[in-house]
Design a protein that fits this description.
single chain, eight-stranded antiparallel β-sheet, five-stranded parallel β-sheet, ATP-binding
Amino acid sequence: MTQPPAPLTSLVRPCITELRLSAFAGHRRAALPLGPLTLLAGPSGCGKSSALRAYEALARLGGGAALGEAFPDPVACVPERARPDAQRRRGFRIGCTADGPAGPVRLDVAVQAEPRLRVVGERLTAGGLVLLETALRDPGKRAVQAAWHTAGPAPVPHGPLPDDRLGTALLPLRVAGRTPGQRRVLAAAEQMVVALRSVFACDPDPGRMRGPVPAGSGRLLGGCGNLADVLWRTRAECARRHAHFVAAVRAGCAGPVADVPAEPSADGTVRAALDRGDGIRTELGRLGDGELRYVALALVLLTGPGVLEVDPAGEVPAALQTLTVLADGLDRGLDPGQRGELLRLAARMCERGHIRLVGAVSDASWAAGTDGVTVVHLEP
């Protein structure tokens, strides 16, 4: 007799292990393996940024966002040579695999971008068994017809789901969980949603980090323009974590670094600097672009969902979740020493299991030989 899968009370943290871009932007039939630390490598135009956008969009859908929020420019996601059908419809297909207590769970989604943005098909599978399947039956209605697994004598339940949301994220509202089959469906859906949530997409913008910033929530934004405000918070909250951050900055920035303080001003703004230890402070505005990007990325790797602007799964304990950082242009502006230091820091943090990193780089040869690094080469 088959036993139902273990619930997410196990110490195994669900995580995304493959991103599939079946037909998305410049990608066709692409399956990208993802490890704890993954570098997407290739020249400009090979689709590194679009792969990260696809991952981020799936994460937003897993968090319950509408299609329009996840894909603000859906036409750009349609493969360039895709031709419309007789009804002028064009779209794209993406998916992923989440590993965890329920075993490998696959999610595949077909999205219509034109003439109207909507989900036209979704499939959630585990162990070769289809647990959820949706399809657009009536183009005139804003709903898809869904069917889910029961493993019982009763017929497979059917019901409508909205065509602008991910059905997998809505299953807990529709499936009672009374039978082993229903519980299997819920366990797989929960694993997928937890694996997708807690994503932080970042691409530090040095131009926004140089000057004073308004005091705010202390949660780091994707462009890292409010870096000084976040440093003010983190320095006060955890001396040990701040000490690790200072050590990382010292290893990657020119000149001595004794501290990285941030202080509020009378006008309500916050300024940050490097304390050189001899009474001299170097304002962030004096640092080079590479130094600022390095400082911001080091802070990202050493913090967590409570500091970064992310959407964690509030119904699941933080100890069972993994933060995934999506870093476009991970090596942009960094010199060889900074790249090496950042990679070693990322490898240490990812090895602990609390964080995963998917970074886009133009060339990954500098990462060769680093333990724990998965390099995925993309071709134009």
